[in-house]
Design a protein that fits this description.
This protein is an alpha+beta fold. The chain is built from two helices and four strands; from the N terminus they run βαβαββ. Strands 1-2-4-3 form a four-stranded mixed sheet, covered by helices on one side.
Length: 85
């Protein structure tokens, strides 16, 4: 798995939406503007959910999304989100 140069990493693998977004929002609320959070999820639905959530959220900007394969062969969806001011 690649290093995303994010300030923090949140592992929500195994959780179904909307829990990855709920946990990401809680984590972002505690971060300073400009900091980034890499969210690691296994729910395929999280890709569209994070896109939609970022469009309507004024304190979060979706910087990058990618799919990687974990060491155990599972697809992991990586969402990098920047905390806005």
């Amino acid at each position: 798995m690649q290093n995303h140069d994010a300030t923090k990493t949140l592992d929500v693998k195994g959780l179904k939406c909307p829990m990855p977004i709920v946990k990401a929002k809680k984590e972002l609320d505690a971060m300073a503007p400009g900091e980034t959070l890499a969210v690691l999820a296994t729910d395929r639905g999280s890709v569209l959910d994070f896109q939609g959530w970022a469009k309507t959220n004024k304190t979060a900007r979706l910087v990058e999304q990618q799919t990687v394969t974990s060491d155990d062969g599972r697809e992991v969806y990586v969402h990098v989100i920047e905390r806005q001011g």
